[in-house]
Amino acid sequence: MDILFQKGIYPFEYMSSFTKFEEIQLLPRSAFSSSLTNEVITEAEYEPVQTVWKSFNIENLGDYQDLYVKTDVILLVDVFENFRKLTQNFYHLDAAHMLTSPGLACQAALKMTNVKLDLFTDIDMHLFIEKRIRGGVSVISHRHSEANHSQCPNYDSAKDNKYITYLDANNFYGCVISQPLPVSGFEWVSPDKISQQLIWHHPNDSAVGCILEVDMEYPPELHDQHNSNPLTPERMNIKPPMLSPTAMEILAEMNMKPASKTEKLAPNLYNKQNYGLHYRNL
Length: 282
Known about the structure:
Layout: E1 33-34, E2 39-40, H1 43-55, H2 61-91, H3 101-113, H4 123-130, H5 172-177, H6 196-201, E3 211-216, H7 223-226, E4 234-236, H8 245-253, E5 264-266, E6 272-278
Antiparallel strand pairs: 1-2, 3-6, 4-5
């Protein structure tokens, strides 16, 4: 049974039709291959496949798939049920009643803090905030890079050392809801009462914050430095003059129209007018 407590091996690319489920022979190791990696599973990985086939009296590939799916799902269910117990014991909330983990985190934050949220009574306030909801940037701005240092197989000592580091930021929602959030006392503030000095020196953990609408100039001297990841992204329609020559060539080759009516969240180096953002981001 211990063999079922690990991730199973499945011939995804071989199983291309329903008729394959009726095959009664154990597949050779070569059938467990991936065109993405151009690799076949190792002998060590193939050994559990043989053991499962013999130990559970598998009669055909359909039986093998059924067992694979059951064990795969049961392992996930076991983890999730343990997580349900955790949230029930600690927060008295059932994770199975939430659509997403951010939704669970939000409910937990409201329950544990006993905060009472005010609703907007001014439609203009609601629209002001709604217009600034942009989403998250997802882009590969630098598509190819090669490291060059002493541990690289093709190290060139005549060139400068270059390292590539993989960084993954997680727990965005948990991080945000652990900081001061707007809950009540919403009001408009006259621009006369807001100065640049006041914004820059306003504490990050202040009990009172603000969301601003500003005009910003993106100085040309910062364009090269910020080119891979410009600040202040915008939701905008990408028009043909904004596209690079390479992008236009690809569109022509694919016989596609350059214009799109769908808004994209696009980091850019344009100057901004009436740009809304949290004071900490300014």
